[in-house]
Every structure is written in C-alpha cells, then in structure tokens.
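Work Package 3 (structural annotation) set out to generate three-dimensional models for the target panel prioritized at the project kickoff. During this period the team completed the workflow that converts sequence records into discrete structure tokens, so that structures can be stored uniformly alongside our sequence database. As a representative example, we reproduce one entry of 317 residues exactly as it appears in the project archive.
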Amino acid sequence: MGESTSYNVQREDASSRLDRFVTVKSGLSRSQVQKLIKKGFILVNFFPEKANYTVRPGDVIELKMPEETSLSLIPEDIPVDILWEDGHIVVVNKQPGMVVYPAAGHRSGTLLNALSYHYKPPLSGGPLRPGVVHRLDKDTSGAIVVAKTDKAYAGLSRQFREREVEKHYIAILYGSLPDDRGEIRVLIGRSMADRKRMSTKTGRGKEAITEFNVIERLGPACLVDVKIITGRTHQIRVHFSSAGHPVLGDKTYGKKRALNIGKKIITFDRQMLHAHSLGFKHPIDGRLLEFKAPMPEDMKTAIENIVQYSSTSVKTV
C-alpha cells in the first residue's frame, strides 16, 4: 500500500458526489478516483461506498493510494519567489505557468515540488497536497500561502473555510464594465457539457460572490481590483465571462479572444489575472498579516500596449 490521507467533510461540501469530492480534494483526475472507488481504495467512515454516494458533514473520507499509482512528491531545485516566511507558514509569489501541486499531467515542475526541495522535513497536511490550504490556477500568478506545520495547516484551513481570509486580485477584462464598482452574485457549478469547466448555467451550483472596483478604464479593456468572498473553482473567470467581460487571454472562458485595436492585434500568452493581496491572521499567534505580490511584467506590458494603441485611458476612483 502507498500513501494514505483522509478528509473531513465540511458543511459547504455537503451534497457533493463522493467521486467529485475526492477529485477536488486530492488533485487526482475524476477517472482515477472512480477506479480507486471501485477497487475499494476510498472509504467513507471506514466502509466502501459507490462513486455517486452523497457526502455529508462529518463524514471522514479515507484515500489509500496503491503503490503503482502513488503520486510521490519529488523535490526539485526550482527558484521560488518568497514574500515572507516564519517557522509555521511561507507566502509565495507564484509565477504564471506553474501548477500548485502534482496531479495527472503535471507530475513535476509544481510549486510543491519546489517547496519540498527547499523545506525539510516535508510540509504539513498529508502526502498528496502537503501544506496546501488554497490554490491558484496554473496561469494565474500571485500570492499563495502554504503551511509548514500541522497546527498552521489547521488554523489556515479554518480561516479559509469560515471566509475570514481577504483575497484581492488584479484582472484585465475585455470591454468596459458599466459600473465603477459592484458585486456579482451568481451560483457556480460544474458544466454539464464539459466537466473540466465551471458554469453559471447549470441550473444548480454553489453560492459565489465576487466584488469589483474598476482601477482604470483602458478604452477596449479595463483594469479591475477583484475581491472574492467565496472561493469557487475559476470563480473570477466564470463570473466576468458570464457578465460579458472575460479576463483577457482566458482560453477556457474567453474564447481565445485577442484584443483588436485599430490595425493592431494584441495577444496574450495567459489569462491576465494576478492574486496581488492576501490577508489573514497568523494561525499561531493571531497577528493580522497582509502580503502584496507585485504585478508581473507581462501584465504591465499588456496594459502599456493597450494604452499605447487605444485612444482613451480613463482612471476611476
């Protein structure tokens, strides 16, 4: 038998299918999880269940990885931009293009591969996603906190679960939002047409709340500060796409859209989304902490190009 880890089902996870719950928590693919369920490697309260079992608050889900499929975390000497650290946590400015933890298709080159090289003994939180209490998409850059100790992991997990963490992003959106500030409150669920995508049109979903404030209007685009109250998968990208203003460069929810300005076509190598501010209480001593990750060069260049080739650039309060 290989690695083993367990998950406690929280209130916000209720009503999820077992295979979906484990997929989200473990980073394994849906098909991998379903195979493990059939073979009895995933237990609910010490007993096997079917993939369509509906998890309930208080359930304990145990995942046992067979040796041949175990995802070992191989330390790799990859540079990491550390914003701050102490003996309990480390806050990193994740670079675009880097996956947070190993999963199918991304067994190496991840943030955790890098951190496991720089920190020994291993980070806390279990063998599959040690130290991870939240995540950023591969092509989203910015601030992310990772726990070094089990006590820090538990404290941070509680703050994220209780929505006590303040997360701000900077995004460059297609078009010009009609209001300088506002809130998007639309349910988000798994797309029935494509299970890798999220959607606001599933007929069901989980509560998702996104607040925004326009920083600067850039003619055919706008720069916005985004605060997420909830933390649903792809939340910012899905919400603004559903509002008709997708994040520039978003190949999943933006229809691979380039920006046409007169005779100039501006393309983007990745979604123009950056986690620029992260605030929470230190999980051990309770200090209020806030960290800011500087805007990456590719987003600065994108803004400069849009302003250069656009006739209007209007800042807002």
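The CA atoms of residues 208 and 230 lie 6 Å apart.
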